[in-house]
Amino acid sequence: MAMTPSPRFACWCGRDAWAVQFRTARFGLLRCTSCGCYRIDPAPIQRDAESAAFYTDYYAGPNVVPSPGTGAPRRTSRFWQVVEQVPRLAAPGRVALDVGCGEGHLCAQLAAAGWERVIGIDVSSSRIARARQRYPGIAFYDRPIGDIGIPHGSVDLIVMDNVLEHLPDPPGMLRELYPYLTPGGTLVLITPNMESGSFRLLGRYWTPELAPHAHVYLFTPSAITRLVLHAGYALDARGTFHFPLRGWRQWIESLRAADPRQFLWRAAQEAGEVFGRLIGSGSMLYVVVQRPARAIERPHGGD
User: Fold this and answer.
1) DSSP for the chain?
2) Pair 298, 178: CB distance under 8 Å
3) Distance (Å, whole) CA 131 – CA 256
4) Of residues 11, 188, 230, the one with CA closest to residue 93
5) How far apart are CA 282 and CA 10, in angstroms?
6) How do residues 232-248 score in pLDDT, each as one tens digit?
7) DSSP letters of 63-91?
8) Does residue 192 have a cis bond before it (omega within 30 degrees)?
9) pLDDT tens across 55-66, in order?
């Protein structure tokens, strides 16, 4: 069923023709009939200018001061699952930038992996405050990239892990980051996969990754490819990966501790992960792209 939502708005690709995937009492999920991207309706934020206040409040949490990190941090970030599939990403370089760094865990892991300089940026000042307290040897900023003095053409690696789906203007952010990469530099994007087994099986009940309270756009492999090409990048690799399955001891603990509805919810999410393995389409989607080595000028995008 095709429709145009009210109030009328266009997809990031510039089109405003939508199909309703479903509606619940709390939110709807729309699919762009042009690029295949999905959009939460209503979105939690409408403009980039709203992001800082929204996510600072969203992640404020209890006023707990984290202890400074000690020793080499474990590689818990999803980025390392991409590294397993794209081994060249394992080699450290000069400058790495984590956009949407949260509380700085990936930054610390990259520093421990041998990167000479690691920088973290996040719009949430509450998360950046915790990152600075936990990892005082790393530079963290809650300001736009243009305000922190990073020279154009100086960053070898940019990672955006579960950031793209929070952006009201995804191509605008990708174009903003482009000139900071070295020619041939790499951008890694990680985001929920709307062709995953979990979404295909669970639909509206795939609540951990639909996250209508926090997400704006959600991507398929073809839609995210169109986005990065639209922003001027060259596609290097694309794929998916799975969340780990729970062990039987975890299931026993969940059955003892959780109420029946929570247990059934967890079982449904696990069933989605199993189905994803059967069809070969994991819950998380990644793309690895590069700033073309010969393209020095900033791109303007376009279809």
Assistant:
1) -EE--SS----TTS---EEEEEE-SS-EEEEETTT--EEEES-S-SSGGGHHHHHHHHT--S--PPPPP-SSPP--STHHHHHHHSGGGGS--SEEEEET-TTSHHHHHHHHTT-SEEEEE-S-HHHHHHHHHH-TTSEEESS-GGGTTPPTT-EEEEEEES-GGG-S-HHHHHHHHGGGEEEEEEEEEEEEBTTSHHHHHHGGG-HHHH-TTT--EEB-HHHHHHHHHHTT-EEEEEEEE-PPPPPHHHHHHHHHHS-HHHHHHHHHHHHHHHHHHHHT--SEEEEEEE--TT--SPP----
2) yes
3) 34
4) 188
5) 29
6) 999 999 999 999 997 76
7) --PPPPP-SSPP--STHHHHHHHSGGGGS
8) no
9) 888 887 655 555
Residues counted in the chain: 303
pLDDT tier at 2, thresholds 50, 70, 90: very low
At 18-33, the pLDDT tens digits run: 999 999 999 999 999 9
Tokens representing 223?
């839609």
Q: Is the pLDDT of residue 281 over 60?
A: yes
Can you say whether the dihedral through the CA atoms of 71, 77, 82, 84 is positive or negative? Answer: positive
User: Could you give the CA distance from residue 4 to residue 199 in angstroms, rounded to a whole number?
Assistant: 23
Place of tokens 């930054």: 107
Closest CA to 83 of 161, 200, 173: 161
